[in-house]
Amino acid sequence: MPPPVLERAPLASALRPRRTLTEHAGESFGGFARLFHHDCGDADSVIKDFTDLIAWQKGMDLAVMVHEASKKFPRDETYGLRAQVRRAATSVPSNVAEGQRRRGTKESVYHLGIALGSLGEVETQVRLAERFRYLDTDACRPLLAQASEVGRLLNGLANSLEAKTSNAPSRP
After folding, report:
1. Nearest to 51 by CA among 43, 42, 60
2. Are 5 and 61 a contacting pair, CB within 8 Å?
3. Each residue of 76-96: b (16+ CB within 10 Å) or e?
4. Inside any domain, residue 169
5. Is residue 171 part of a domain?
6. Can you tell me the distance from the alpha carbon of 164 to that of 172, in angstroms, rounded to the nearest whole number?
7. What is the CA angle 105-110-112, rounded to 5?
8. How many folded domains does the chain comprise?
9. Which CATH number covers residue 25?
10. How far apart are CA 138 and CA 107, in angstroms?
11. Burial of 13 (0-12, 13-18, 19+ CB in 10 A)
12. What residue numbers bound the domain in which 104 lies?
């Protein structure tokens, strides 16, 4: 049985434009909507909140998957690898959310970097759990696939924000 996935708004409502870019001016993730919310058909659509970010949604799903999978770890790992992988998995969507709530684009990119670092920890710890035989290969495969997808989304978001920063006119 696959691990439970957090419920979220139906896809159509999650992609519905909420505000235009001019209404969203000054908020750090405005350019992300064009990169990942292309399905909505409106070039001026943007995210309203970090919960609209696909990277955050998929990061939340990963955290739930890791929490469920780590229940299979031996009892003596309660305060070891189990706790460590859960903290790292929780850190991914938490840093996406914190970055989105920050005022500046540079701060947002910084927190995406932390999320990527935590994601690397999750991948390493899942592979360690496989080597220690706490999880079998079939249990690790969906975790690593989800982590890979989250990594692509985080990299795309960071690249989009960095491009936005480098294309911005310099202030005198």
Report:
1. 60
2. yes
3. ebeeebbebbbbbbbbbbbbb
4. no
5. no
6. 18
7. 95
8. 1
9. 1.20.1440.60
10. 38
11. exposed
12. 14-164
Residue ranges of alpha helices (H) inside the chain are 11-15, 32-36, 54-70, 81-101, 105-131, 137-167
Amino acid letter at 68? E
Higher pLDDT, 160 or 16: 160
Q: Which residues have C-beta within 8 Å of that of residue 95, sequence separation ≥ 6?
A: 111, 112, 114, 115, 118
For residue range 103-137, list pLDDT tens digits in order: 889 999 999 999 999 999 999 999 999 999 999 99
d(CA 23, CA 44): 10
Is 127 inside any structural domain?
yes
Place of tokens 């684009």: 105
Q: pTM (2 decimals)?
A: 0.73
The answer, yes or no, to whether residue 38 has pLDDT greater than 60, is: no
| CA angle at 68 for the pair 15 and 112, rounded to the nearest 5° | 50
Q: Report the pLDDT value the prediction gives residue 169, as an integer from 0 to 100.
A: 61
Report if residue 9 sits inside a domain: no
pLDDT in tens, 48-99: 889 999 999 999 999 999 999 999 999 999 999 999 999 999 999 999 999 9
